[in-house]
Design brief:
Layout: E1 7-10, E2 21-24, H1 28-39, E3 48-53, H2 58-73, E4 77-79, E5 83-85, E6 90-92, H3 100-112, E7 117-121, H4 124-128, E8 137-142, H5 158-167, E9 172-178, H6 184-188, E10 194-199, E11 206-216, E12 219-226, E13 232-235, H7 240-255, H8 260-268, E14 277-279, E15 287-289, H9 295-306, E16 314-317, H10 325-338, E17 341-344, H11 354-365, E18 372-374, H12 378-385
Length: 386
C-alpha cells in the first residue's frame, strides 16, 4: 500500500484504507496464476503446450521432444531445468518450473515469436504451489516415479509427492504415461484426460521392441524399434532408461501427427547437456557427465556405465543442501556398492555447511566396503578424478 498498490489479493482479512480494493480468495497462489494469465492475454491458449512430469527423465524427454517439434515446425519453446528458450531469447533456468507470473510472460514471448508449440518440465513442487494453474496443457507426459523429494521444503510424504504428480493429468487433454511403472494406475486414477500408454510390455499403445546397446560414430547409445512402425530408432545416449525417455518423446510426437522420419532424425542427433553427456578425453578414458541427483538416477547411471567399463568405474558427486539427509546416506551407499572408487565433493550446499553434507554422504559410504576420497573443492576433485 505504501508503494501505491491499487488492489490487494489476500486469503485473510486485512485492514486497508477505502482507496485500496481487497479481493479475498481461498488460494492466493492460484489467483496469481489466473491474474498472470489474464494480464498476458492468456498466451498458453494460443500454444500447443506439452508438460512432462516424473521423478527422472523430464529433462531428457523434454529436449528430445523439443528437437523433434523444432525440426518439424522450425522452432519450439522450451522451459526446464537446464534452460528456457522463448524463441526470442535463450538463457539458463533458475527453477525447473518458474512461478506462474514468469511462466505466463515466457508464453507471451513465445507467442510473440510466432511459435506453435512449447515443451516444459513440470515439477511436483510446481504442481503443489499452483505454478502451472490456468495452463491448458495439450498433453501431459508421465515418465516414472521413485521415492524422492521427501523432506523439509519439499514434500511431507510419498503420498503427497504422488498426488502432486497426479495433478498434471487433471488439466491436460491427453495423458501419455509409462504403463510399465508401478505407479501408473495411481497417477492416472480419476483423471478425465484421454489416456495413451507407452512401455516395453504387451498391451502398451506405443511399445519399444528389439532394445540393444549400440555405438555409432564413436558415440555409445541405444537402438530400438517401435511396434507397428517400420525401421529402427537410435539415440546417442546409453541406458535402457533413456529408451523410455526416447519412447515417450516419439510417442508424443506421433500422437501430435509428426512424421516418422522427422522423429528418427531428431532422436539420432539429440544431445542433452549434463544428461549422460559423453566428453572426449585422451588416454583411454571415457567421461560421462550426468545430473544424477538422487539414488534412483545414480543407481541407473552406474548400472548402465558398468557395461561400458573395461577397467575402473570412478564416480564423482556431491549432494545439494536443504534437501533430505536420507538421500545423502542412500547415494553414498549406492556409490560404495557400485563404483570402484568414489570422489566425494561439494555441490550447491545452499544454506548448509558443505562439510555437514559430505559427512552424511560418508556415513552412507561406510555402510559398504567401497573405496572413497573426500575433496571438498570441486575443481580439485575433478582434477583428481581425471
Amino acid at each position: 500500500m505504501e508503494k501505491g498498490a491499487a488492489a490487494i489479493v489476500a486469503s485473510k482479512e486485512i485492514a486497508c484504507p477505502p482507496s485500496v480494493t481487497v479481493i479475498r480468495v481461498a488460494d492466493t497462489r492460484w489467483a496469481l496464476a489466473a491474474m498472470s494469465a489474464a494480464a498476458c492475454g492468456y498466451p498458453a491458449e494460443h500454444l500447443r503446450v506439452i508438460g512432462i512430469t516424473g521423478t527422472k527423465g523430464k529433462t531428457t524427454t523434454a529436449w528430445m521432444l523439443r528437437d523433434i517439434l523444432a525440426r518439424e515446425e522450425g522452432a519450439c519453446g522450451l522451459i526446464g531445468t537446464i534452460e528456457t528458450d522463448t524463441g526470442l531469447r535463450r538463457f539458463p533456468s533458475t527453477h525447473t518450473t518458474p512461478e506462474s507470473c514468469q511462466l505466463m510472460a515466457y508464453f507471451q514471448e513465445m507467442r510473440g515469436a510466432g511459435l506453435t508449440s512449447a515443451v516444459m518440465e513440470v515439477s511436483s513442487q510446481a504442481l503443489k504451489l499452483e505454478r502451472t494453474a490456468c495452463v491448458p496443457f495439450c498433453m501431459g507426459i508421465f515418465t516414472n516415479l521413485g521415492e524422492d523429494h521427501i523432506g523439509p521444503g519439499e514434500h511431507a510424504s510419498p503420498e503427497e509427492y504422488r498426488w502432486c504428480k497426479h495433478l498434471l493429468f487433471l488439466q491436460c487433454e491427453t495423458g501419455l504415461g509409462n504403463v510399465d511403472d508401478p505407479c501408473y494406475g495411481e497417477i492416472f486414477d480419476r483423471t478425465g484426460c484421454r489416456k495413451v500408454t507407452f512401455g516395453t510390455e504387451e498391451g502398451a499403445d506405443w511399445r519399444a521392441v528389439r532394445i540393444k546397446e549400440e555405438t555409432r560414430d564413436g558415440r555409445s547409445g541405444m537402438s530400438f524399434g517401435i511396434e507397428g512402425r517400420e525401421g529402427g530408432f537410435f539415440i546417442p545416449l546409453p541406458g535402457r532408461y533413456n529408451v523410455y525417455n526416447a519412447l515417450a518423446a516419439a510417442a508424443a510426437a506421433f500422437e501430435l501427427g509428426i512424421r516418422e522420419e522427422t522423429v528418427r532424425k531428431a532422436l539420432s542427433r539429440v544431445r542433452v547437456p549434463g544428461r549422460m553427456e559423453q566428453i572426449s578425453c585422451a588416454g583411454g578414458r571415457t567421461i560421462f557427465l550426468d545430473y544424477a541427483h538422487n539414488v534412483m538416477s545414480l543407481s541407473c547411471a552406474l548400472d548402465t556405465l558398468r557395461g561400458f567399463v573395461k577397467s575402473r568405474l570412478i564416480v564423482l558427486f556431491g549432494c545439494g543442501g536443504n534437501r533430505s539427509r536420507q538421500r545423502r546416506y542412500e547415494m553414498g551407499e549406492t556409490a560404495g556398492r557400485m563404483a570402484d572408487e568414489t570422489v566425494i565433493t561439494s555441490d550447491n550446499p545452499r544454506e548448509e555447511r558443505p562439510e555437514d553434507i559430505i559427512a552424511d554422504i560418508v556415513e552412507g559410504m561406510r555402510r559398504t566396503e567401497g573405496f572413497y576420497t573426500v575433496i571438498p573443492d570441486r575443481r580439485e576433485a575433478i582434477r583428481y578424478a581425471v
